[in-house]
Amino acid sequence: MSDFAGMEELLQDFLTESLELLSDVDNKLVELEKRPNDKGLLNDIFRGFHTIKGGGGFLNATPLVNLCHRTENLFDKLRNGELTLSSEIMDVILDATGVVRDMFSYMAQGRMPSPADPAILSNLDAALAGQTPAVAAAAPAAPAAPAAPGEPNWQQLYQAVVVPADSVAQIAGGGTAVVPTSAPVAPAPAPAPAPVPAARDRAPAKANTQVAAPQETTIRIDTHRLDQVLNLSGEIGLTKNRLTTIRTEIMQGNLGTNTLRALDEAVSQLDLLVGDLQNAVMKTRMQPIGRLFQKYPRLARDLARQLGKEVELVLSGEETELDKTMIEDLNDPLVHLVRNAVDHGTESTEERIAAGKPVKSIVQLSARQVGDHIVIEIVDDGRGMRADMLRKKAVDKGLIDSETAQALDDKQALQLIFLPGFSTKDQISSVSGRGVGMDVVRTNIQRLNGRIDITSVPGEGTRLSVSLPLTLAILPVLVVKVCQQAFAVPLAMVREIIPIDPNSIQEVSARPTIVVRDEILPVRGLADLLGWPATQEPAFGVLMQSAEKTFILAIDAFVGRDDVVIKPLQNIRPKGVAGATLSGDGAVVLVLDMEGLLSAESKEKGGHLSPALLDLAI
Q: Which of 38, 169, 207, 552 lies 20 to 30 Å from 341 when distance is taken between CA atoms?
């Protein structure tokens, strides 16, 4: 039985609000280290702990209240000038916030948290008394429990409702929407507290706990957006009634000009409304990426302190919106990229001084919208990467042979870091060196129909750029035909469609090419990429941009543009296929993953996509 029986709704509201506040406190603590005399920051942090303590009091969570009370008193003395912030006091404060977060994990399981470790309380008391705290205290290990999401700040100037994320698309159907506040969470046994080493020497476990949360099933929506969905739903209902009336007239044999004109107007109106409804529903799923970014300054701070480095994580573009489900799936890749930038990218203090650089390293994490994609960049001003060293590492680890390594240009050599087992570190540490990570990052990004690119200048730094579609729910595509079969290619990659004259195709380096506006472009036959025998000469070419490649995709015909909902294929994921959808006439259309298709072609000449796959997709 839950320790909070009868208070489940109050508990969920408390966790949602308090985790937002705690994430905000973590970020402000990182800022406070840079500006220890900033009274505004100290007041904000004090109020955050005061609010958390008050909510814990309503739930009778005495251990949480006691810990927050001591920490609140410490901030009160700091803001009143009775104490001066030191690195030792900051370590104690950050340990306390980590334990508060661990307590939230217990409470999310319906369990009352255990009292904080006496060493932490003792250090807080020592700091309150003006004494130097001992080494950082032990913190109880949090159970593997779902933590409430770090939603957008609760003080935003709009009302919000919480609805299940997988129910958003059903709202437009009309009727009454039941809005639960949480999903039930099964309690789990509480693990025994385990001691951890001092703050300067230990791995930043609490930072990992902070960002490694499972996917949430609720989403916070601006009520204005929800009202727009409901209004469009009502208008679609009126249009449906109009179509029903016209259908009755047609069934009675009334096929006059006025009836057909009314039918055309009603269908056009329905098409317009459905398009607006799709856009409105997609907007309800969009969340500012700042709710994800806000977790990383603390992560970067803890890791840099462990490594003995001075690193500042600078955020920008936090207001950029992205599909909620993609934000959740981006968490793990971004955690690794931020950690990688701090650990691998930035130099030690001694190295930076020797290179004539500022002691503090700057890592920039930014997001911006480019067309129907979002671009996330992680940029550091560190040592950069040398292509020749990457080639040597890959050969030494047996990942590629020396002949292949020498054939790679510098840009291709940078891609070696994405090979499984590749690591630039010679020694394994608690942070890195095992060659696990970047290959998983690329795999996770590709699962989101995105791509990751890398540029690096030795001595100046590295830039990792992640490009993602704004949403995975609806994908604009161009439907083309080859061998009498329809396929869909992502419209974001399409630049234009041109007719192909067989006489315009020329062989360059044994490959077919076409000159388009003085640009020599390679021709890739879609039938060849699929490994199918061509049934006719291609009539059209789709000029496509894929990552750094521009090419002509030769096709037999094209059907037109469409917005599709991609459905995954059951128990099968062949190279070059992102999923399947249905055309207007009910036929199965495979949605092609062009990056995967081109990658498969570079390894073996077609033959990887069987026509029988279409039968399996049905």
A: 38
Residue 173 has pLDDT above 70, yes or no: no
Structure-block tokens of residue 304 = 């840099």
Positive/negative CA dihedral, 227, 231, 232, 233: positive
Tell how far CA 472 is from the center of its chain. Answer: 12
Q: Are 515 and 543 in contact (CB under 8 A)?
A: no
- Whether residue 278 is found in the same domain as residue 317: no
- What CATH number is associated with residue 460? 3.30.565.10
pLDDT computed for residue 364 by the predictor = 96
14 φ, ψ (degrees, to nearest 5)? -60, -45
128/515 Cα distance (integer angstroms): 76
- Choose between 510 and 141: higher pLDDT: 510
Smallest Cα–Cα separation from 79: which of 56, 49, 117, 115?
A: 49
* Prediction pTM value: 0.64
Of 58, 68, 61, residue with least CA distance to 21: 68
- Burial pattern 375-398, b for ≥16 Cβ within 10 A else e, equals bbbbbbbbbbbbbeebbebbbeee
Q: Alpha-carbon distance 186 to 31, whole Å?
A: 37
Q: Containing domain of residue 537, as a range?
A: 475-617
